[in-house]
Structures are given as C-alpha cells and as structure tokens.
C-alpha cells in the first residue's frame, strides 16, 4: 500500500480549504492558516493524559501539552485523522470520540520564531489501554485530574503549550459551575 503524502490542508481567512502543502514546509516564520486538531484522552478514572513534546519537535520542543495534536491530510475525514494519530503517536485505541470545540482557532509563535496558525478543532476521547508513546513525538506523559490541569493552567500558563491554555480556558467558559470529573465535564475544570 503506497504511503499518503504528508500534506496539510491550507485554509482561506474564512477557514475554507483552498489548497495543500507539505507539512514539513508549512511551519515557519510565516505559517499559512491550515487545518489541525487537538485531542484530550481520558482513562477510566476520569484522568486526562498530558504529554511533553519531544525535544526533537520543530515547534515547542519539550513543552507540556494535551494528549496529542495533528493534521488531517487532504481528503481525510477528521475523525479518521484523530484515530490515526492516536495509534501512531501513542499506540492508543480510542473510544467515545467527541468533538467539543469545533471552531477553535489560534495563532502563536514559539521561542525560535516558528508560527503555529491553525483552525484546530478539539476532541475528547477515552481509552482503556496504556499509552506507548513514540519517542520522536513524546518525551514524557502524565495522567492528571481535570482539576490538576485547571490549576496548572491558572498557576503556570507559560510552562504549557499556548493552544492548550487557550483551549482549557474556552472549555471552562462553556459552563458556569460544574464540579464533576467525567471526560465531558472537563469544561468545568477552570475557575
């Protein structure tokens, strides 16, 4: 089976697909708007998996972030892209995949000047398997409660990926007062 090109979907200012480009050449000092995704994986105890990006990553090396992120390939269904990345980066099989922030968008520049400029829908998923991270993608991982994640975002946002900080804050804005800890209730973790 031939390998699919590792292209990303380029987007116009309104977030509509308008081309493609090799992923390896997209992230630079003038990154065009493109499609991505973020996923938060929960275990049976309601804990969320955080990962520390590999030191070999081109953007935000060594930074703690959500469970995993990636880019759908042109023509790839978003759900299939999330499942593909979970398997390749963490050797995880996902259950109960749910889109929670369909229109999340951000732009951020890392210390080296590389820009992330993405429409990045956010997904929640559960798993019953232990992760086995690809060391080229993940340096470390930790399972934390949603409350611990919320406290980390409040106390040290500078130590976390900027997209995760923004996502957690937006998830917290979705509800006024929620004290439960199931995956769908991550939205109540900040505040």
Question: Please, could you describe this protein's structure?
Answer:
The chain is of the alpha+beta class and 191 residues long. The protein has a single domain, classed as Nucleoside Triphosphate Pyrophosphohydrolase (Alpha-Beta Complex). It has 4 helices and 12 strands; from the N terminus they run ββαβββββαβββββαα. It has helices at residues 23-26, 78-90, 146-155, 162-173; strands at 7-11, 17-22, 34-35, 37-42, 48-53, 64-65, 68-70, 95-101, 105-109, 115-119, 122-126, 138-144. A 4-stranded mixed beta sheet has the order 7-4-11-8. A 3-stranded mixed beta sheet has the order 3-10-9, covered by helices on one side. Strand 9 (105-109) and strand 10 (115-119) form a beta hairpin. The longest helix has 13 residues, at 78-90. The N and C termini lie far apart (49 Å).
């Amino acid at each position: 089976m031939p390998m699919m090109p590792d292209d990303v979907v380029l987007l116009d200012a309104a977030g509509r697909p308008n081309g493609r480009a090799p992923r390896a050449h997209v992230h630079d000092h003038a990154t065009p708007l493109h499609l991505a995704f973020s996923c938060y994986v929960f275990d049976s105890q309601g804990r969320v998996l955080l990962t520390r990006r590999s030191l070999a990553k081109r953007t935000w090396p060594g930074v703690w972030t959500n469970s995993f992120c990636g880019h759908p390939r042109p023509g790839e269904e978003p759900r299939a892209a999330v499942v593909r990345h979970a398997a390749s980066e963490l050797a995880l099989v996902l259950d109960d995949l749910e889109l929670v922030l369909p229109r999340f968008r951000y732009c951020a520049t890392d210390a080296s000047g590389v820009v992330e400029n993405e429409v990045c829908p956010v997904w929640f998923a559960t798993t019953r398997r232990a992760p086995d991270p690809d060391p080229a993608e993940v340096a470390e991982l930790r399972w934390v409660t949603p409350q611990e994640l919320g406290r980390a975002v409040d106390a040290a946002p500078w130590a976390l990926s900027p997209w995760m900080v923004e996502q957690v804050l937006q998830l917290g804005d979705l509800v006024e007062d929620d004290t439960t800890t199931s995956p769908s209730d991550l939205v109540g973790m900040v505040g």
